[in-house]
UniProtKB/TrEMBL annotation:
The lineage of its organism: Bacteria, Bacillati, Bacillota, Bacilli, Bacillales. This is Homoserine kinase. Catalyzes the ATP-dependent phosphorylation of L-homoserine to L-homoserine phosphate. It comes from the Bacteria. The gene is thrB. Its main location: cytoplasm. Gene3D superfamilies: 3.30.230.10, GHMP kinase, C-terminal domain. GO terms for molecular function: homoserine kinase activity. It catalyses: L-homoserine + ATP = O-phospho-L-homoserine + ADP + H(+). Pathway: Amino-acid biosynthesis; L-threonine biosynthesis; L-threonine from L-aspartate: step 4/5.
Amino acid sequence: MKPFRIRVPASTANIGPGFDSLGLALALYLTVDVSPSSKWRVEQHSPHLSADANAEDNYILQIARETAGQFHKELPACKLVVSSEVPLARGLGSSASAIVAGIELADQLCSLSLTPEQKLELGNDIEGHPDNIAPALYGGLIITTAAAGRVDWIRMPGLDTDVVMSIPRQDLKTEASRKALPDMFSRERAAAASSVSNVLVAALLSGDYRLAGKMMESDLFHEPYRAHLIPHYNDIKLYAAEQGAYGTVISGAGPAMISFLPKGKGKACADQLKTELPDYQIERLSVDRTGLHVTQSSTSKERTSE
C-alpha cells in the first residue's frame, strides 16, 4: 500500500425549504492521511477532535470496516492522521464528511472499485438521508431524493453568491433538532411548503437570487419549529439583511446559520457579524465544486467522484 490522502468538504443542507434534499458543499475540509502500519494507529490534529484518539473508537475507521465487511473484505492495518476544519454538531455535515471518508478509505484499501453512485447509496444507508452525503461526494449544489432503495440526484448550476457562516460555540445534536419537528403536516401545509421549495429551485435555476432568498426564508418544513433552538436567530438574519443578504437560514439542523449575499458583499457582512457576535465563529466561505478528492502521493495522481 502506498500513502494517500482523502479530502472531503463540509456541507450545508436544507437551505430553507429544501428539507432533507438540498445540499451545498463548502470549502471547509476533513482530511485523512493514510500510510502503512503494523497496527492501527489514529492521530487527530484539530481543535474539533480529541487529541487522545483511540483507533477502535474512530468513526471514520468504524465506517470503513462496516463498508469493507459488506463486500466480505478486511481492512489492512494503517496509520490515519485526521485533520478537520469542520465543527462538530453545528449543522455543517461533519458526520457526512466522516462517512464519505470512511467509505473511501475502505474503497482504497480493499480495492472495491466503487462507483460514485454506490458510494452515495452506501452513505445514504448510514446517514439516513442524502442531502449532506451527495455534496460531500460531488461538490457544488445538489438536489437529491431517496426512495424505493435508490438515490437520485442532480447538480444545480453554480451558485454565484458570497456565503457567510455564523457558528456558535455550543453544539446542537441533530437528534434534538429533529425532535422539534412535527410528526405530520396537514395536506394544506404540505402543499404550501412544497410550493415554496419548488419556487426556490426555479429561482436558483433562473439566477433570481432575490426571489430565492425570499423563498429560503419562507420555509414551512423546519425553520419555524427550530428557530427557538438557534441562538441569535433573528439577530443574525437582521444583521445579514442590513448588509444586503438575499437570505439567511439555518444550516442543516443548526445551530449554525448561513447567509447568501451578492458577490463582493460577504466581507462587510462577516465584519459586522464579528462585531455584533464576538463569541461566534464567523466564516466567509467559498463553495467547494470538487467534492471527495483523493491524492495518491506516490504518483501525484488525483481522483474525484465527478
